[in-house]
Sequence to fold (723 residues):
Amino acid sequence: MSEVDVAPREWPTVRVVAQREIAVKLRDKAFIWTTVLMLVLVTVATVLPVLLTQQVPSLRLAVQGEAAEAVAELAAELGARETPDAQLPVALIGVGGLPAAEITTVTVEPGVDVARLLQDEDVAAALLGEDLDDLHLVGLRDVPGELETLVRAASSELQVAQAAADAGLSAQEVAALTQPEPPALELLEPRPEGTVPPQLLVLLFAFLFYLSVLTFGTSIAQSVVEEKQSRVVELLVAAMPVRWLLAGKVLGNTVMAVGQVVVIVGAGLIGGMVAGQGELVRQLAASSGWFVLFFLLGFVMLSCLWAVGGSLASRVEDLSSTTALMQILVIVPFFAAVLPIDEGTQRVLSYVPFTAPLLMPARIVHGAVEPWEPVVAAVLVLVTAAVLVVLGARLYAGSVLHTSGRMKAAQAWRGLG
Amino acid sequence: MDRELRLEGVSRSFGTHVALDDVSFTVRPGRTTGFVGANGAGKTTAMRIVLGVLAADRGQVTLGGAPLTPALRARFGYMPEERGLYPKMKVADQLVYLGRVHGLDTATARRRTAALLDELGLADRADDVLQTLSLGNQQRVQVAAALVHDPIMLVLDEPFSGLDPLAIDAMGAQLRERAAAGVPVLFSSHQLELVERLCDDLVIIDHGRVVAAGEAGELRAAHAGRRYRVAVRDVAAADLAGRLAAVVPGGPDAVVPVEGDAGAVVVDLGDGDEQAVLAAAQGAGAVREFAPVLPTLAEIFREVVR
Fold:
């Protein structure tokens, strides 16, 4: 046997460790099920609202009396009008602020028991009356909002038309009265149509980051403490420098975390495309870039701390206390990003390395940043990550062989394993 | 490849506690070296420093005269005192993993794993999760973990603890086989009879200091001191002891009857003259036995560890 034929080299060994982390995670049933669940949630969340909002309600309206018939006819006409922009995902508001609805009128002869029809739920409501100024819209428990609005609009339009005709106005004047010209709406920097509000995007990103760091941070800490608890760690650190082991764990879990986020965001984007929301997909894809970059940096920065949290514990049960600091470092930025805070504070927090991974992308989404700002924040996070990797490696090395009882960070620093 | 491992002036403290104080000894290739000491004497600390798991405050560890590098250390086989593998990982998977961590490529790691499991009689358990194995079998997997990368040096911390007599014999044979193949083997143990039986060389450590080191036979001879075993035909031990006590400086305390051999006594000469003792014995009758006594390892141990 020659002397140099086998000797572990850094990168391949780190990769071997990372591969094991990934293999363990892929066989973890809890991980698989949460991923599947999140995929289903994202798909449902993107496709369902589209299906719901694109559905125009079908309503049957019982009608009795001459005026009632005229109003019902106009209401049906108003409700059936095409919306001016068919691509609009939120189709709640139709022409001139009127909702869309498909109204079927059912003429009821005098003497028929209208209350009975309503009780049988044969019709959604009944419109009764011979005179325009004496109409009754009758419902069982309530009247569908669309129906009420449309009937009210039709009734007032007919009344205005009648009053105008009584006053001897020309057809043009009547039209001006019944269909007044609304003010033209002009936006200097219009958001593309079919977008979600920025605050919702921020919430989505913040939630994904929060969930990923918590899931995979815990997973790193657990993997570290399990090796300590099973004592296998001594064999590992005899075979390789501790920082390779740390690097392998961080790498493996980063790959899994980023992979999960990409799969989930990807499912959302594909779901959006399938549901015909091209604009929404473009908006998401455009703001995802910075988010993914900050996600990556923020994740690496925090995951070293999670590994230290794991190495300070000696049993899985100790983890909740040794990782308390890391949990705070995940929860505080989450709320800082989600809760409304004043712009000055938000600006400052978007540079603080622990809150930057969420708040800088949030400010980008809101469109309130100079082009250089994300770069500076990213560099700050990167530098902090580098410092934490070095600190984390030392704390990890100082505590990973200490298998009896919890350790204080200061002890680990002095290497009292 | 036949290079010896040498510790030179290795010291290590934990806070104010001195775990190792200027420890030097040699582990020679082709030989098994027993590492003996009371609990807390510093055996595990010394072994961890050899493996690079702990750093020495002072001193160095060399292999063939060259300081140890991480690349060299990665080729050592190690069985830590606190046993442990991944409980939820399959036997073969974790041996392949550990082989790869030690720098083997996947194909070699698989081949070596299969061969070792075969050798250790665990081939049919290769795909079982470790924690489903009996403790004895888990211990065998631990041995395989130390051997999977074909180590150039073996360091085993208490390899015999928790083993039944048959497993002890098998483990002993493994160690001898590796040593015969030219691999220096260092192991620690509390079981002194076992160490005596298996070791070519010995290192005895006490309170962080090496108190005796060298070839087992030479050590015994060196610590033989001036003790003689004497027996005279048809003379009871008590009578013989009385006669011999008169000619040694230690008096009656220096003459002890041998248990299980009626008639024989062991005489500690002290500054006395063995010819005077022989003459006194001959005065009692026909001398059946007169020979220097080699101490057992346990006796040497008790003598040097005080």
Remarks:
- The longest helix of chain A spans residues 278-312.
- Confidence is low (pLDDT under 50) at residues 1-5, 83-95 of chain A.
- The radius of gyration of chain A is 32 Å.
